[in-house]
Write a structure and sequence with these properties.
about 475 residues, mainly alpha, Ammonium transporter fold, 2 domains, two-stranded antiparallel ribbon, 2 strands, about 65% helix
Length: about 475
């Protein structure tokens, strides 16, 4: 068949197909018409699926925190660190369900805290023999789905402090402060910002928690470290080396991965795919910039490529962009990340000079960079993206937004600081803040838990000598001693 004939045959086939489609299209359209109600149900399904997946990613960050802390501390405290992080997830789920969610999202008492919906009493009702699930106003989510997302955040806030207080906190004391932070202190700050409280009413911006999560956790870690005092034998200016940087690197990568639930998940739906994309990009760029600035700063100082500081640099960038990831443009997220990578190093230097023993740099990462990230909105906020239509100072918007951000951050630091000092003072009074002095000699793992993560390195049981109390212990040196 000639090329000419093949050409005309294709034209005829296309013409016939077009005619058939033209005739059948109205019928197909009529048969497949989707009602508004069906579209609404579809949007609920899509948004619910997105938030559930994001919640799982945030919950997986508990693993990241556990691995990071286990890697950065000495090997005599790894079991304790792992159990504290694991226990924190379970305990926070219970106290946040019983008390925390109501304080965070219940009916507001003058913008200060919630007053109802404790035990999620409004989440499920039974009418005429049918179970009804309450929906969140303005969102395509049930209250049960929203609770899961918020619980994962609460667990993150309360577990941050364990790193700053590692290797020397009494385990019962840890249980108590985890319950208070996850059930009372953190939820009140949530109400101020995300629950329609007084900060939200005054235009405060914190998209995913630089203040609500990280400043709360960071301030708790700092004050806990100060009130506990340093680990016995701690030489300031020459901190113990991390016992396993492999675990620390694994934990950091898990945290970076989980942050894609933390920040993009805070959109709470997929109706605005452009917003999800912006948040995801800003999160990535800030983390990358923090990684590079911390790494090069340490190289300039020491001539060595330092893994530990590089890991914390990435986390610093992530923490700093968490508040403004939806309110700034990508170039600004890079600037924020670069600054955070430097800030985390300088803050760790300062704490070392002040003789504050923070084994994993919890305050430097979460506290200092959380505060900076909150204020950065007041500097780099894009008017077209902010909730109030205000631009940041460096974007031509004046001081208004920066002042609001400063007030919100300062109020959070003050409230958390006072609450935590009262809590830790009470624990100290009943001798439940710092572990027994014997644990400082032999390691908290064997003293508190009777085991070790490295039995071939740290003898335990019949292979270990006993103390005056008869407890079987070990005198093996800790890594970095």
């Amino acid at each position: 068949m000639s090329k000419r004939n093949r050409f005309w045959r294709r034209i005829v086939v296309l013409a016939i197909a077009s005619l058939v489609l033209a005739v059948l299209a109205p019928t197909i359209s009529a048969q497949d018409t989707v009602t508004t109600e069906e579209l609404g149900k579809l949007q609920v399904s899509i948004d619910t699926t997105w938030v559930i997946i994001a919640s799982m990613l945030v919950f997986f960050m508990q693993t990241g925190f556990a691995m990071l802390e286990a890697g950065f501390i000495r090997h005599t405290g790894v079991v304790n660190a792992l159990l504290e992080n694991f226990m924190d997830a379970g305990l926070t789920a219970l106290v946040f369900w019983a008390v925390g969610y109501g304080l965070a999202f219940g009916a507001s008492a003058n913008g200060l805290f919630g007053t109802d919906n404790f035990f999620l009493s409004k989440a499920i009702t039974i009418e005429n023999g049918t179970i009804q699930y309450a929906m969140i106003d303005g969102l395509n989510l049930s209250m049960l789905t929203f609770f899961f997302f918020q619980f994962a955040f609460a667990a993150t806030a309360s577990t941050i402090a364990t790193g700053g207080m590692a290797e020397r906190t009494d385990f019962i004391g840890d249980i108590i402060y985890s319950a208070v932070v996850g059930g009372i202190i953190y939820p009140i700050v949530v109400h101020w910002v995300w629950g329609g409280g007084w900060l939200a009413q005054n235009g405060f911006h914190d998209f995913a928690g630089s203040t609500v999560v990280h400043t709360v956790g960071g301030v708790t870690a700092l004050l806990g470290a100060i009130m506990l005092g340093p680990r016995v034998g701690r030489v300031f200016g020459s901190p113990p080396r991390p016992h396993n940087l492999g675990l620390a690197a694994l934990g950091t990568m898990i945290l970076w991965f989980g942050w894609y639930g933390f920040n993009p998940g805070s959109t709470l739906g997929m109706g605005n795919d452009g917003l999800v994309g912006l948040v995801t990009l800003n999160t990535t760029l800030a983390a990358a910039a923090g990684t590079m600035s911390a790494m090069f700063l340490l190289f300039a100082r020491t001539g060595k490529w330092d893994l530990g500081y590089t890991l914390n640099g990435s986390l610093a960038g992530l923490v700093a962009i968490t508040a403004g990831c939806a309110f700034v443009t990508p170039w600004a997220s890079i600037v924020i990340g670069l600054a955070a990578g430097v800030l985390v190093v300088l803050t760790m230097d300062l704490l070392e000079k002040l003789k504050v023993d923070d084994p994993v740099g919890a305050f430097a990462v979460h506290g200092a960079c959380g505060i900076f990230g909150t204020l950065a909105i007041g500097l780099f906020g894009q008017a077209e993206l902010t909730l109030t239509g205000q631009a940041g100072l460096l974007m031509g918007g004046g001081l208004d937004l920066l002042i609001v951000q400063l007030i919100g951050s300062a109020a959070t630091v003050a409230f958390v600081g006072i609450s935590v000092v009262v809590m830790f003072t009470a624990l100290k009074a009943v001798k439940r803040l710092r572990v027994h002095p014997e644990a400082d000699v032999v390691g908290i793992d064997i003293f508190e838990h009777g085991t070790t993560v490295w039995p071939d390195v740290l003898p335990v049981g019949d292979d270990a000598p006993a103390t005056e109390s008869g407890r079987k212990l070990s005198t093996a040196p800790a890594a970095g001693d």
